[in-house]
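Hello again,

I reread your note about wanting to compare the complex against the isolated chains. To keep things tidy I'm splitting this into two emails, and this first one only covers the full assembly. Below are the input lines as submitted, including protein chains and any nucleic acid or small-molecule components. They are followed by the predicted structure of everything together. The single-chain runs will come separately.
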Amino acid sequence: MVLNTNANDSRTPCVIVGAGGHGRVVLDILLSARRYRPVGFLDSNPALHGRRMDGLPILGDLGVLTSLRAQGIVSAVIAIGDNGTRRGFADEVEAADFELINAIHPSANLAHNVTLGRNIVIAAGALACAHCQIGDSVILNTGCIVDHETMVGTAAHVCPGARIAGRVTIEAGAFVGIGATVLQCLRIGYDAIVGGGAVVTRDVDPMTTVAGVPARPIKSAPDTDEFTAMLVPASLEHLGAGRSPS
Ligand SMILES: CC(C)(COP(=O)(O)OP(=O)(O)OC[C@H]1O[C@@H](n2cnc3c(N)ncnc32)[C@H](O)[C@@H]1OP(=O)(O)O)[C@@H](O)C(=O)NCCC(=O)NCCS
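Full-complex prediction:
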């Protein structure tokens, strides 16, 4: 695979990892922002390889990174909606010595003192106010509002139209659903899920799903046994792996 490189184009070439709906959004952001020049998508689904999406080729899976590197393409952004998968792919792409870039739509509005990690997607119309801290692999989706001094942890996702008040902490991997509201100074625990349209008035425990107005837990974090079972492949269970002796 040899990509057509244009020596007159001053934009930095990059690849988008993830050829799904979020990949399409990220492509649009990069084209609007004009700082990077997307050359194609990577995706782990072999059925997509060799096809095109929105005018760009789907080049293969992460195995293609070496060949891209040889052609001078060393920038990537992970465009995968699932928080855990996005974080894992970011680690793999970084291990292949690629720079993880931020895709920020020109209509997003960030206060001058917002701090940003890497591999962040900030979609059209999103707002992040004074002193917000936005961690690696975060998505601030279309039209969301993140008010002052809020911290959004690694690989969290603030969905379209969600409104986060000031001094909120959204821990790593948490998901704040479409149109949800989180009141000031609250903490959304790691890997927690806030349902679409919820109004969160109390802290949310890690790995817990809340929904409704006011938001109430509809799924709690797994208990210790359930959690261990999630970590231990079924094929190892007969060895007692991961379980404490009873
Ligand atoms: C909260 C959510 C994660 C729950 O999904 P789930 O675990 O599959 O739960 P279920 O669909 O089985 O629903 C369980 C119960 O909660 C209710 N419920 C689900 N989502 C709800 C919501 N957002 N608000 C209020 N109630 C909700 C269901 O009606 C159901 O109630 P019942 O038991 O009385 O029938 C999901 O419904 C949701 O809101 N996802 C957000 C999607 C989103 O933001 N997408 C944007 C992506 S960019």
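For quick reference: The first helix runs from residue 21 to 33.

B.
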